[in-house]
Amino acid sequence: MKRILLMVFRSLHNLPFWLIRIFQLCKIDRYDAKTRYAYLHKIVPTVIRRGRVTIHVTGIENLPQEDGYVMFPNHQGLFDALAIIQTHERPLVTVMKKEVKDIFLLKQVITMLQAEIIDREDIRQSMKVIMNMTRRLKSGENFILFAEGTRSRNGNKLLDFKAGSFKSAMNAKCPIVPVALIDSYKAFDTGSIKKLTVQVHYLKPLFYDDYKAMKSSEIAETVAKLIQDKINFETKA
Fold first, then answer.
1. Is there a contact between 118 and 130 (Cβ–Cβ < 8 Å)?
2. Global pTM?
3. What is the pLDDT of residues 184-223, one digit of tens each?
4. Where are the alpha helices (DSSP H) in 29-105?
5. Architecture of domain 2-236
6. Which sequence spans correspond to the domains of the chain?
């Protein structure tokens, strides 16, 4: 919370202009996805820098050349999405839990990104989200999905990845991109405002031919292991 307040305080002179533009960009019939995302991609690095956070990124070259893929990062906290938006140039869509859909500013960002809202307690609604994602992936949109379902409270140690999270990618036969986030939890979840480096590592994707013979549970275990192995390697280096 302290770092969020620092970001807000150091951005007070920009906030009115940013908010006006964000509300303008919520008119999705007037602005295309590329324009809406480009604005977020532009201002997020400034916000992050003012929060005394540096992003170290590797593996940009691993992102598929063609759009229509799902990134599966480990989930450490609220800062995760900011780190990915800063480092990912192409438009993306997030999948968010229904509990955040009415929070000020998050609500506007949801509209800008045309995020999918999921109710984890409603199986029928969750199935609808899977079908929507499948359709949108086939049309060339890129997604972020946190397969743990909730943030890990164990720092750089992952929770189990939920097999159902991979259904849309399997149905769309699209690339799956594991993303390893390191120390992202330290940004907002530790109460510290010390200078911090958060690592984002885009790992080599799994293409359909790589996983077509696997069950969703096997894909989940494989992706989680790739991410945990990368985290272990980087944190021991």
1. no
2. 0.94
3. 999 998 889 999 999 999 999 999 999 999 999 999 999 9
4. 33-50, 79-87
5. 3-Layer(aba) Sandwich (3.40)
6. 2-236
